[in-house]
Amino acid sequence: MSPILVTGGTGTLGRHVVRYLLDRGQPVRVASRRRAPAGPQPHEWATVDYRGGTGLAAAVEGTSAVVHCATNAVRGEAELARTVLAAAKDAGCPHVVYISIAGVDRHPLPYYRGKLAAERVVADSGVGWTVLRATQFHDLVYRILSALARPPVLVLPQGVRVQPVDSGEVGARLAELATGAPSGRVPDFGGPEVRELSDLARAYLDTAGRARKIVSVPLAGRSYRAYRDGLHLAPGHAEGRVTFEEFLAQRR
User: Fewest 10 Å CB contacts: which of 94, 113, 186, 211?
Assistant: First the structure.
């Protein structure tokens, strides 16, 4: 059985994809910027330089699919996708699965625009492809709230709702898609609940044992309006099951 390559296989999402593929009995090759850790590993390892593409051709060679989870906000999502897809096409890899974000075709945030451009690179690559869009991960919401809670007052953008989803559940879905045939754009994968950000902040503070006053303030700009209007949400695709409180309990 040919291995499946997971770019960014040591990251928040990629490590879940790797785990679920291995649970399925699927050989896995992890592509990472880091050197392989010492000792035996349950999967193959490929050290790659995404900026210059060094090591990527060897990483893709002989694979049955690529799950592209690596990200690079500095260099640009489209350019990174172009490098990975070119290597996949040259190697004759029949299937690339790309993880994107719900609402990238509606939201003006520059990072979202980059993800949409990367989707187009994937679709136009000449390689069989699947794109899954997900809402924001619990992990991301947790990191944001943790940073905002450092001062005595926790300041939040007013009127913003979030639909956080468990990265493990998204990883399981990507593993399922990677072992199947190319499917194009598949239905979004959203968290189980659409919640006010202030509500999630209170849940975080309760779990962390932090006493903070929460202040919500209106902001300006197109990106803020898009968040306030819920363009990043996928309420019709509440596929996830793990709530934010359950995620917090698992961390604790």
Answer: 211
The whole-number average pLDDT for the span 139-150 is 96
Bridge-based pairing state of the strands 153-157 and 213-217: parallel
Q: State the residue range of the domain holding 86.
A: 4-251
CATH number at residue 54: 3.40.50.720
- Mean pLDDT, to the nearest integer, of 150-179? 97
Q: Report whether 201 contacts 214 (CB < 8 A).
A: yes
Count: domains in the chain:
1
